Every structure is written in C-alpha cells, then in structure tokens.
TrEMBL record:
GO terms for molecular function: xanthine transmembrane transporter activity. Its main location: membrane. Belongs to the nucleobase:cation symporter-2 (NCS2) (TC 2.A.40) family. This is NCS2 family nucleobase:cation symporter-2. It holds the Pfam family Xan_ur_permease. It is found in: Cell membrane. InterPro entries: NCS2, UacT-like, Xan_ur_permease. Keywords: Cell membrane, Membrane, Transmembrane, Transmembrane helix, Transport. It comes from Ancylobacter tetraedralis. It is a multi-pass membrane protein. The chain crosses the membrane at residues 20-39, 51-71, 77-95, 102-125, 131-153, 182-199, 205-225, 255-278, 332-354, 360-381, 393-413, 428-445. One of its GO terms (cellular component) is plasma membrane.
Length: 465
C-alpha cells in the first residue's frame, strides 16, 4: 500500500517513546561513561573534572544520536541507532594522556581532526558495499554478537575480573574481589528470568519493555540487598551547563591526529556492520547514499565530541541487540533516547540515578541482547549457500577464528608494531577484513547493483516474513 508507513518511520505515542527510549539509555549507559572515566583517571583529573567529562559525554551522545536517528540533509542513517564513545579510541588516547606534551587538549585536537577526516572519507567507505554479501555480513554480525558477550558476562560477574591500579606512577593489575560473587550472579540470573518470563507471557507494550522492566526489578532487588546506593544522587547538582572548549583551546599534533584518523577508519568499518545488522532487523533497504549519510554522521558526532570536551563517537552495538529483542523498529525511539541523554548531560542528578544501577543488573539483560546480535548473524548465514559452495564454509570459519583472537588472547599481537594496535585490537575489524578478503578470493566480487538487489530482496523477506 502506497501510503503505508515503514515501521522504522513510525512515530509512537510519547509515553511509549519515552519508556522505550529510557530502555535504550539504560542498556548503553555503563559503556557510555566508561571511556571518560578511564581517560579522566589516566590524566589524574580532579573528581569535579571527571564528573564534567561524563556530563559532556552524555550531552554529546544525545546530539550525535539525534543526528543519526532523525537524519539531516546528507547525514544520518535514519535507523534506530544510539551513539556512544568508541572503545577503539581508548588505547591511543591513553598513550596521548601519558605524554605531557599532548595531554587532554592534544587529545581533543586529534578527535576534532579525526571527525573532519571521517566526514571527508564517508563517501569512499560507503563504496565498500559490494564487498559485503550475506556471507560476509552474517559473519561480521555473528562476531559482533560474540564479542559483545564478553561485556555482558563481565557485567553479570560484577565488572572486570582484573582491575587496574596505579602505584607510585606504575600501573598494575589486581583481582576484583567483587567479581563472581554469588549474590551478584543471583541478581543477574533474576533479571534474565524476569526478561524471559515477560517475553513469553507478556503482550504488546509489556513485552516490548521486558528489558527495562527486568532492569527495574533487578534494581529493586539490589536495593533490598543493599548493593545499590544513592549517595552520589544526593550529592549531585541539579543543573550544569556543557560549554564548548571547557578545558581550553585544543592543540594539534601530527602523530596523534594520524593515529586517531586510523581509529576513525576502524570505527567506520565497524559501523558498516552495525548498519547492515539493523537493516536486516528492521527490513529497511540501505543503498550507498544511506550508508554515506550514516558514516558521515559518525564523523560529525566525533567532531562534536572534540568540540564539547569528549571523544570519538560510533554507533553502539549494545543497542542493536535491544532492537532484536523488542522488535520495536522505530528510529524515533532512539531519538527519544537521545533526548534523554541530553537531559542526563545537563542534569547531573538524573545521571547519578542511572549511574547507580549495578553492573550485575545490566549483566542479566546483556546476555539476552548481545546473544540476539549473534543470533541475527546466524540467521543471515542460514540464507547463504553452503551446500553447493563449500568455499563459504571457509569464509565463515576462518573469519570467526580471526575475530576471536583479541577476545581470547588480548596480547596475541603484542610483538607487532605499536602503530598497528588500533587495527589488531578489534576482533570485529579483523573478522571483517578476513571475511571480505576470503570472499573476494573464493567467490569474486559482485557489482554494487547486484548487492543492492540482494539487499532489497532480503529486506522484502523480512518485511513480509
């Protein structure tokens, strides 16, 4: 029917938008604030400056999410996307933080330059679409989901098994005493069971917000058990503006800029995988122009990050899984999430409430959502011809193996040149490069038109299936 609104473009009633948007925010919040916490502590900033970094990050998250979800002329993928600071930038920024000649202002200069670089190269990266037939796309999305499971498992365990502490200027690791405690594991399991029960027996909107209700139930249980605390909420201010260049005028250094531009390439290739995953989940056809607009929004978000005292932005894969779990495809839901992120950035007391959610509570939800991303990749691979084309088996097998290297053995590439680390630390990027290379070697390359026709057929199958 000509006048039918695609589910991606459906505008839900505002109470539903607000509730579903909050669900997206809770899913991504821990990851969103992790990077400013890490960098702030590495720079030995005072607590009030670290708090400002977090507020600035949330504020810029909101702006970048609105650009990506709502879309503006020439930018924005117009899919249900939440934006957050990429972890691919942490290693290079820690190295910059350790150099007194670069420092925080040098980091911001490299972030701004990388944002401009991302805007410029977006049309060229989008031309890679013919390199991503279903065997490649499904493999990448499968690796994204498997890689994210480490995050969900560590959340359920109560953080990271090993913590880093600086003693006499030397960083060292020590076991996390709270990791794997029975109480925390029990809460994570409780959240998981609530989500599964609501998914099975809930109907309509109740099923759509199963993850949110599971988190709320987990918070209630954590409060009763005394592991959810609200001291920071009482101490937080009600309002704090986020102004550009809060710490001063950025400085620009060639090597940090080149390093961050390399990170931007990694981010954009990973974003291609996220966009293709969302396209499959939502039944929305993506052509080269749409991919260019989405990738350009990554660059714009990173530029905004540098201006508003934060870091490079990318499409958050955590939230892709939530789209699969809820089945809610409207991009206005993530736009509502962007508005909430903006409010959290300007209202520290609200941000403190969200920050009080224990990681074990998020862990129970993460196991469902991140597994859903992996399941989406597996579903795409079911449409790949493995029976008559045995080469496709090799594409998947070897690519998944390479994608697991950073996950299983983080120090596997430690003896290779340091400049290559941003590339080698991303299992998603490794899987993408290997999958693309092997597919080209075994199967050759299809034209862009053939890929777009295949994407349209897949979208139609999702829409009517």
């Amino acid at each position: 029917m000509a006048g039918k609104v695609h589910p991606v473009d459906a505008v839900l009633p505002w109470p539903r938008l607000a509730t579903l948007g909050l669900q997206h925010v809770l899913v991504m919040y821990a990851g969103a604030v992790a990077v400013p916490l890490i960098i702030g502590r590495a720079l030995k900033l005072p607590p009030e400056d670290v708090a400002f970094l977090i507020s600035a990050d949330l504020f810029a998250c909101g702006i970048a999410t609105l650009i990506q979800s709502l879309g503006f002329p020439g930018m924005g993928i117009r899919l249900p996307v939440m934006m957050g600071v990429t972890f691919a930038s942490v290693g290079p920024m820690l190295a910059m933080a350790g150099d007194p000649s670069i420092g925080l202002l040098g980091i911001y200069g490299s972030v701004i330059a990388a944002g401009v670089f991302g805007i410029l190269i977006a049309p060229f990266v989008s031309r890679l679409l013919p390199l991503f037939p279903p065997v490649v796309t499904g493999t990448i999305i499968l690796v994204i989901g498997i890689s994210l499971m480490r995050v969900g498992i560590n959340w359920a365990g109560g953080g990271l098994p090993m913590l880093t502490r600086v003693v006499d200027g030397v960083p060292g690791s020590f076991p996390n005493p709270g990791y794997g405690q029975l109480q925390g594991l029990g809460i994570a399991l409780f959240v998981l069971l609530v989500i599964l029960a609501l998914t099975k027996w809930g109907e309509g909107f109740l099923a759509n917000v199963a993850v949110l209700l599971g988190i709320v139930a987990g918070c209630a249980l954590a409060s009763v058990l005394g592991i959810m605390h609200f001291e920071n909420v009482a101490a937080a201010a009600w309002f704090a503006p986020v102004l550009p260049f809060h710490f001063g005028v950025p400085s620009f250094h060639l090597v940090p800029i080149l390093t961050m531009c390399l990170v931007m390439v990694v981010v954009m290739i990973e974003s291609l995988g996220m966009f293709l995953a969302l396209a499959d989940m939502t039944g929305r056809k993506l052509d080269r122009a749409a991919l260019t607009a989405g990738l350009r929004a990554d660059g714009v978000g990173t530029l905004i990050g540098g201006i508003f005292n934060t870091f490079p932005y990318t499409s958050f894969s955590q939230n892709v899984g939530l789209v699969g779990v809820t089945g809610v495809r409207s991009r206005f839901v993530t736009a509502a999430g962007g508005v909430i992120m903006l409010a959290l950035g300007l209202l520290p007391k609200m941000a403190a409430i969200v920050e009080a959610v224990p990681q074990v509570v998020l862990g129970g939800a993460g196991l469902v959502m991140f597994g859903m991303v992996a399941a989406t990749g597996a579903r795409i691979l079911t449409n790949v011809d493995f029976r008559t084309n045995r080469f496709n088996l090799y594409v998947v097998a070897v690519s998944v193996g390479f994608g697991m290297i950073p996950l299983v053995s983080p120090h596997f590439f430690k003896n290779l040149p340091h400049e290559l680390q941003p590339l080698l630390e991303s299992g998603i990027l490794l899987a993408a490069l290997v999958a693309v290379g092997l597919n080209a070697f075994f199967n050759g390359l299809r034209s862009g038109a053939e890929v777009e026709r295949a994407a349209a057929s897949a979208a139609a199958a999702v829409e009517h299936g």
